[in-house]
Amino acid sequence: MLIQAKKPEHHGMTGTRIHNIWRGMRARCYNPNVNCYKNYGGKGIQLCNEWNTSFMSFYKWAMSHGYKDNLTIDRIDVQKNYEPSNCRWLDIKSQENNRSNNRWITFKGETHTEAEWAEKIGIEKRTLNSRLVRYKWTIERAFTTPVRKKVDGHYV
């Protein structure tokens, strides 16, 4: 008796942003040749079977759960799999503030990520990071020292 393989889906969406998001999730979880595999598949993160075997299943969930072209998929609990109950759509800024490797800083009773603080105090994130990590400034000094502007090759 010949067992037929499951026919591939014909959805006409190959190459679209939503399809690339689905392919990216699968690659992160199942392809050890992908750079970030170690942070996903290498840690046991998988796609639920329904999404892994059917782009259209993922697509239907995405469309009914707020997908927009300016949003990215986010796992609510980074220790858990890509599955409907653990995923949501976030803008890139919110996504970055939800990363497990964020640096959280408390200053004057307020706690925010380094990126949030940079925006709040009006400084570039890389400048704030350099002050704290490279130059080992105190949080107070890093937050309160005005940024010098470079004009004609000189700081003013």
Entry keywords:
two-stranded antiparallel ribbon, 156 residues, alpha+beta
Secondary structure layout:
Blueprint: H1 17-30, H2 49-53, H3 55-64, E1 71-75, E2 87-91, H4 92-96, E3 104-107, E4 110-113, H5 114-121, H6 125-134, H7 139-144, E5 150-151, E6 154-155
Antiparallel strand pairs: 1-2, 3-4, 5-6
Helix pairs in contact: 5-6
Distance N to C terminus: 82 Å
Low-confidence stretches: none
The proportion of residues in beta strands is 5-15%
Multimerization state: single chain
Task: Tell me roughly what share of residues is in helical segments.
Answer: 25-40%
Strand order of the largest sheet: 1-2
Helical element count? 7
Count of domains: 2
What's the main sheet like? 2 strands, antiparallel
Broad shape? elongated
- The SSE order reads HHHEEHEEHHHEE
* Number of distinct beta strands: 6
Q: Give the integer mean of the pLDDT values.
A: 89
- Radius of gyration over C-alpha positions, nearest whole angstrom: 21 Å
Structural class: alpha+beta
Quick synopsis:
This protein is α+β, with helices and mostly antiparallel strands. Helices cover 37% and strands 14% of the residues.
Structure description:
- The structure is a single chain.
- The mean pLDDT is 89.
- The protein is an alpha+beta fold and 156 residues long.
- Helix 5 (114-121) packs across helix 6.
- Helix content is 37%, strand content 14%.
- It contains 7 helices and 6 strands, in the order H-H-H-E-E-H-E-E-H-H-H-E-E.
- Strands 1-2 form a two-stranded antiparallel sheet. Strands 3-4 form a two-stranded antiparallel sheet.
- A hairpin with a 2-residue loop joins strand 3 and strand 4.
- The N and C termini lie far apart (82 Å).
- The chain is elongated and about 60 Å long.
- The chain has helices spanning 17-30, 49-53, 55-64, 92-96, 114-121, 125-134, 139-144; strands at residues 71-75, 87-91, 104-107, 110-113, 150-151, 154-155.
- The protein folds into 2 domains: 17-96, no CATH class; 104-147, no CATH class.
- The longest helix has 14 residues, at 17-30.
